[in-house]
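Ticket #4471: structure output looks truncated?

Reporter: J.K.
Steps to reproduce: submitted the chain below (314 residues) through the standard prediction queue, then opened the result file.
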Amino acid sequence: MLSIFMFPGQAAQIQASEKELLTPATEYIYETFDDVLRARYGISDYSHTKIFTHAPVDFDPSESQAANFVNSLARAIIEEEEKGRECDVCIGDSAGEHAMTAFAGVHGDRRNPQTVRQCIELMLNRGEWYAQCRPNGEAPTKERPYTMMFIGIEKFLLENAIAQIPPELGKAWVSKSNDAKSNGIGGEILAVKYAADYLVSRHNAPKRYCIPVLTDSPVHTPLMEKARKGMEKELEPVEFHPPEKKVIMMYSGKEESDPSRIKQCLTGIIDSTADLNRSIASAVSMGFKDVVLTTVCRMYKKMIKRRKDVKPVD
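Returned output as attached by the reporter:
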């Protein structure tokens, strides 16, 4: 079976308790994560209080990206090492690309706690840079998100809605494309809300198909330039290695093997449209169609089931 391992983006870490991810093969990941959070923020036993719990929790921006990283990496290791599912090619959705590259050996030996520690620190720094890109410093909520996904609505309709936004409400852009009829708008909160309301009123878009996504800032828009430049500096001294597995980078939409090019892709996507659809199509063109998701996130499962060119692996 030729398998695509798909690594999810931010917000996938809050779907459900991830207690099943704590196994002998992954224990070192969560021990390292807890050590870093304790040393950096004075937070004790983070994994058991926020990740391995069924209780509703709120994630700080920097925490959410790091939590997404450790969960995705752990799940991929379980799929490969414990379930015996061979990974032929990897694709990642934005923040998920960091777990993807760690899994593929770009940062070094993924079984080395020091390698994992370095990656966690980078994800915490990434989250802090992202928080600095919030217009007016406002934290997003479901009622006031920076990103909205629209199911069953084509990209040109989103572009038309964006063109109607009054200048005084700010700016928005098409920031995400999961497939031909699953696209997202990102930008300033009032601008995103106006575009969503316009789609509902003018194009009869069902509200249940207008989904707020709790990204911690207006991701994949020009408003993220500061975060991109910050992460370019963060990654500059970090040693990258050629990947041990095929990796398709979202920024280029194709397989990349040069370490310096992978760095460019990891940062370039921060303030560019995230086209997951293109990454999936690239993997399919290489002969792959079975998708192993490194998340329990329902949004990703539904997205894969809607597509005709790939199929999910349970």
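Triage note (M.O.): checked the attachment and the full token line is present. Residues 61-82 form the longest helix (22 residues).
Status: closed, working as intended.
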